[in-house]
Design brief:
The protein contains no helices and five strands. By secondary structure, it is an all-beta fold.
Length: about 80
């Protein structure tokens, strides 16, 4: 995905790596210290942690595929 099109709040799907297939919301875009990646995207994937992914490992996701009042969760 083009870095210029990624903004906070955008829903994206991860296409590569350990979290492949998961959908999350963009929290921040930029340079983060402590890792090998220079430019990355910080994502909230509805887990008790935030993950960092490279922009090329992301695709746009549907805004909200579920009807109001329904939520998706893992058991």
């Amino acid at each position: 995905m083009n870095l210029n099109h990624i903004t906070p709040g955008l829903r994206v799907r991860i296409t590569a790596g350990h979290w492949r297939g998961r959908t999350g919301s963009v929290v921040a875009v930029g340079t983060f210290q402590g890792g090998s990646e220079r430019i990355a995207v910080l994502l909230d994937i509805d887990e008790p942690l935030l993950i960092r992914e490279m922009p090329e490992h992301l695709d746009p996701a549907p805004e909200d595929p579920l009807q109001p009042g329904w939520a998706e969760f893992n058991i």
